Amino acid sequence: MSVDGGPAPPELLWRKHLALLVYLARSPRRGRSREHLIGLLWGDRTEAAARHSLSEALRVIRHYAGEGSVEATVGQVRLGPASVQLDVDRLEELAAAGDWAAAAELVSGEFLEGFALAEASEFESWLAAERGVWGRRGVEVLVSCAEAHVQVGKVEEACGFAGRALGLQPTSESALRCELRCRSLAGDRAGALALFERFQSRLAEELGVGPSEETHSLMERVRRERALHTEAQAAHVDSMPVVRPPLEGRGQELQRLLEATAGSARARRAVLLVLEGDAGMGKTRLLDELLARLRLDGISVAAARAVEADRAEPWSGVLALARGGLLEAPGVAAGPSAALAAFAEVLPEWAERFRGAASMAAHPLGRALAEALRAAVDEQPVAIAVDDAQWLDQDSALSLGAILRDLAATPLTVVLAIAPYPPRSELDELRVKIGSELGGQTVRLRVLNRAALRHLAERMLPGYDPVAIDRVVRRVATDSAGLPLLAVELLRAVALGLDLGTISGAWPEPFRTLDQSLPGHLPDAVVAAIRIGVRRLSPPAQRVLAATAVLGDLVSPAVLERALSLDTEDAARALDELEWHRWLVAEPRGYSFVARIVRQVVERDIVTPGQRRRVLEAVDRVSASLGDSLHRDATPSRRRLPR
User: Cβ distance 12 to 61 under 8 Å?
Assistant: First the structure.
């Protein structure tokens, strides 16, 4: 408590003086009758003594808060309009303005924590009710603050607010659900599962009930999220700590995408979202963050990543989506048998689920996808996403336009992450319809500015002082040209010991994008950063990364296991490690490098001629057993399928 910015005098803090002040401030129109106040606080005294105590308390309040602070008549006592402001009043003002971070700063413990008037039972009952009200409101504010941070990609901060909410009310299901979402998005699926088990036990012991259906549904969605081996998230092999890079400088873009998807679900109107940017701009990471949130929100997601070879494979994009989560969408089984048959003919997992469908007459694949989606959106909203959509085959690209037209009145979101090269007229025709014939928007990613790079450096280099951070940021801004991919690699290498001051070089060359650059065009600092990052991986992960660089755009785990003579579990651990550190990206057909230039650097500067020869010879030996398209046809095991 403070008076005019200074500490409150002891006389004002006497228990009944303070109780009177707070009670009046929380009363309707900030006033009560004298009789009511006497009965509330001095009911144990004679009438004369009680009236004297009330008058003395009002004198003290006037003395310190000003003569106009209390309006007293024969029968009523009222606080002046601006004489007293409680934290809870300020909290409501901030919450009404949507300033959740500032409101959350005011949430600290319970209302009048530690305060008691044992001799005033009516006041104690009122105080208990107020504590319940403001305890619940505090949870609401903290949860809203956490969700606001999640919306802009600040998951670590969101976890802190969610944890505070659950600490404030340990049996609050809204707080639990918020923390479950935050932990899942942070990659701590095991922690989310353990938290749920503890919460469930506590509810049973203290209240004799179990979690609600809403909480159970969220927990099931968390369980279905892909789980990486815990070793993948541990320290580097030399015990250096791992700081996973945050999603920096993309908060507004993520929020726009989430709001557009939510709007599609509410209005039951299809939307097209185009995520556009050069290679290295962070399209894949942003798309991953978006889809993870949609899955946790109960939206069915089917996702795929196209590679350059897909352009020559008719319907490869449609089939990748069918393998990328559509099969698990509730409602898809209600689709026409001809649609199910089209996929069962060529995809083993569909044939296994819909036995006998492969023998039926089948729709063309484009129509089959549309009909399967129609059945799925009847059950719940659906999002389909294609990363690196510039490599889609023509048939699949054209079918997306037909789907958006035919399913216009459904809660379907189509997300395309596109690089400007090579240009695709089919996708350009779709994009120009946004705002006229199609709902949706185009989100263009830009390079990170100095402020974003500084925030990134502060997170990835926690031991550096502000002067050192400034020095690193200036160099990283020059060497990365603001591209998130390169900035992260440089900062990761600095954290592992790279001294940027010993390396020269300038980049980028005029009029060249990252995708148009060759490894030799990159600054020496970037190449050195990639080398250091690779050397800090575990030996199995280094072998898998080298083999993936040799084998091409898209490599299945089965190929890697046989080419490197790894058992399934060791290969899975290595792939999880590479995915966690964002060297590789998983999609239903296999794994590919997060960026082509990184693959080229690894292949040129890290893979030895002997390694390359051994990998290719091993692949040749097993090619007969795996078929003629080693890099594309083998399906990852069910456990590893991204959902």
Answer: yes
